[in-house]
Structures are given as structure tokens and as C-alpha cells.
Amino acid sequence: MATSVRVDAWVWAVRLYKTRSQATAGCRAGHVRIDGERAKPAQHVHVGSRVEVRGSERVRIVEVTQLLAKRVGAPVAAAAYIDHSPPPPPKELASPFGMRERGAGRPTKRQRREIDKLRGRRSR
Fold first, then answer.
1. How far apart are CA 119 and CA 51, in angstroms?
2. What are the structural domains of the chain?
3. How many CB atoms lie within 10 A of CB 86?
4. What would the pLDDT profile of 84-113 be if each residue is shown by its tens digit?
5. DSSP 14-83
6. pTM (predicted TM-score)
7. What CA dihedral angle connects 102, 105, 106 and 111, to 10 degrees?
8. CA-CA distances (angstroms) from residue 35 to 10, 32, 38, 39, 71?
């Protein structure tokens, strides 16, 4: 049995990234840290290592309990780490900017411009 696994393969195998190439790109971009240090894709993780993955909406902090090099089912993947991540913010606190009430119909041209402005999109 192996004593270490590449970090990009492990975060993909435990389903923290959808694809292996996304996991490699995340490591190269600095979104993955091992024990507080920025991780390169080929860096190895060991049992007991603390892996931090910065995703689009939240940070996942996990402790490695099992080494996996191949993608496995969700229950097996969840058993391969201990999750120390902070809980996600409640939906009430998340600001739904640019959201319209259900049943309000299509936005007018003026409302569309305001929504695009809130979302940071340029007008044409």
C-alpha cells in the first residue's frame, strides 16, 4: 500500500474537484494548500495531512484519513477525510443581488441594465 498520493489525484478522488484537470489547475493557481503551504500538483499528501481547498463559494478544510488515487463512490470518498470546514453561511445572510421575485415576469430593458450593473457586467 502506498504511503503517499499526489495531491491533485487525491482531491479529485475524494470529490473536492469534479475533474482531475480542474484539480491540477486549482493546485497551479494556488487554491490548494497542504498544512498551510501552497501545494504544487505533484506534491504528496500523507495520512494526517491537512488539505485546504479554496473553491468558488467556500473554503474546504479536510484532514486526510485514507489515501485514494482513483475516484470512488461518494460514501467511500467521504470516509477518506475528516471535514474541519466552517459551516456555510445561512441562505438568509447571502445577498441575492440581481435576483427578482418569482412570478414577476420578464425584466424590462431598464431592469436588465440595473441587474447587469449589480452583477458587474458591462453594458454593450
1. 32
2. 5-83 (3.10.290.10)
3. 9
4. 998 877 766 665 565 667 888 888 899 888
5. TTSSSSHHHHHHHHHTT-EEETTEE--TT-EE-TT-EEEEE-SS-EEEEEE-S--SS---HHHHHTTEEE
6. 0.72
7. -80
8. 15, 10, 9, 9, 23
